[in-house]
Design a protein that fits this description.
Layout lengths: L1 H10 L5 E2 L4 E2 L2 E7 L9 H18 L1 E9 L3 E8 L5 H19 L2 H5 L11 E5 L4 H11 L4
Length: about 150
């Protein structure tokens, strides 16, 4: 009886997604920084990154709900994916493809980083439950404002 009640409540949520074999709401808060924490992420680069992240997500089978640059040296992403999509895959695609495309569009970035890599090799990942989803979205949005 309790499981039926929980199922009914959860099914009314607008963020629930339906796939052929499951119903899900899988979300991640992901953070990574620029190599050496260099403050090279300008407003122009941030705007391009946001577009890139949307394209990458659509192409690779996950959704980038929200992304923001913090202090010009790190990225915060709120992403959602089907349970079969590994969170490490999401990070690998976002970091790898965005670095390559940013270096092509903004060649001065490579000079600013001494010809090396754009992103630090590590990242922070946290799963986000449905109760705190809005809290995380507000937190990421406020990063741009320095909050």
């Amino acid at each position: 009886m309790i499981s039926c009640f929980c199922y009914t409540i959860c099914m009314n949520k607008s963020n629930i997604k339906h796939a052929r074999t499951c119903v899900y709401n899988v979300n991640y808060h992901i953070v990574w920084s620029v190599k050496y924490r260099k403050k090279v992420l300008t407003v122009e680069i941030e705007n391009h990154l946001k577009e890139l992240f949307q394209e990458i997500g659509q192409e690779k089978g996950f959704e980038v709900v929200l992304s923001e640059v913090g202090e010009g040296d790190h990225i915060r992403v709120f992403a959602s994916a089907h349970p079969k999509v590994a969170p490490s895959y999401i990070v690998k695609m976002l970091k790898g493809i965005s670095a390559r495309k940013l270096f092509l569009k903004f060649p001065e970035l490579k000079k600013d980083l001494g010809g090396g890599h754009l992103w630090n090799g590590s990242f922070y990942l946290e799963t986000v439950g449905s109760i705190s989803e809005e809290t995380y979205k507000k937190y990421i949005e406020n990063q741009k404002k320095g909050g």
